[in-house]
Amino acid sequence: MTGSAADAHEISIPAGDPGSGMPFRLVIKARGARVEAARSEIGFAHRGLEKLAESMTWHSARAVAERAGCASPGIAGTCCCMAVESLFGVEVPARAKWLRTILCEAWRIREGLSHAGRTLAHAGLPSRAALLLSCRDSVEGWVRASFGASGSSSRIGGVARDLGGAESKRGRALMRRVRDEAGGAASALAGDRIFSDRTRGVGVISADAASAWGVTGPSLRAAGQARDLRRDLPYLMYAGLDFEVPVGAEGDVFDRTVVRLLESTESARIVEEAMAMMEPGPLTAKEGAVVLPPAHEVYGGGEGLARHRRIMAGKQRLPAGEGCALVEAASGEMGFHLVSDGSPRPYRFRVRSPSFALCQAAPVILKGCAVEDVPMIVASLGASASEADR
User: Fold this and answer.
1) pTM value?
2) Strands (E), the chain
3) For 338-375, what is each residue's pLDDT tens digit?
């Protein structure tokens, strides 16, 4: 910090861990205890993932996509698979779509509880934050036990593993806990004077400003604009599900926190409904230029093993064209735009991440706030460095 208390001075807040903490470096120009201006700087976790994916096969690139969204790899991996499938015309079986829907909603719950819990901790409610973060850890543990240690079972053409009876039973019990914890927290915060005084009117962004900066997801809905791709442009199995889209009014820290908690309760209901509606069926597509054969065909030798080798070694020509997919991720709209020139590797691999827009809008949101509120405001936005720094 430079300068005296009476003059404007600069405060540099360094970037933290790529998956959590401060997602970008923040340079604040403050006068006294008020922020006059701010500048966000990203790039500290840059790994060149898009160019890295362009040097890999389509299946290896999917794994890179999951690293680009390390905060919720199940959503990022599913979106990438959907883009590849649209590019090569692969039709995914219904059960695989149900499982992807459950996977995405579970990660949405995990992220919603995480960002709400961190916001409450910064706002001075550590006990309530601890309850939410404990529930978050339980959800993530169930996801990794049910869908794989990487947190994503989505593969090009379907999913890698099914949801067994024991995992389903545990998941239903966990979703009831999520509804109790998140719903109870949202109700309690509405009447909590300490939290209300600390967060109402703090870190405000209007719906028009959010749209102008490209901000989507809970931050946009907290400002009063009910935009949700799951309802407006349904994908996977969302068209057949019944759920509400929570909306705020002021676009401040209070509304962003409550919207995330209410969205977590709705996601828990979606998971329960999807488990009840899901019917038995195949997990992967039978045909497709980039669809790997089932494991029993590969290990049984013959044509299955030969096809697996051709695809993974990149020894077959693929159709040229473009494909894209857009999904509602935990912090906003995430999209993948892919281009194929007929080779076994992507010609162009482009990611649209919600966190990049949140990072560039942060200085506008922070202007005029108290310096002590900066960590709380940034936590309420829910940006991730791994998404912004690709």
Assistant:
1) 0.91
2) 8-13, 25-31, 34-41, 154-155, 158-159, 320-328, 333-341, 348-352
3) 999 988 889 999 998 888 888 889 889 999 888 888 88
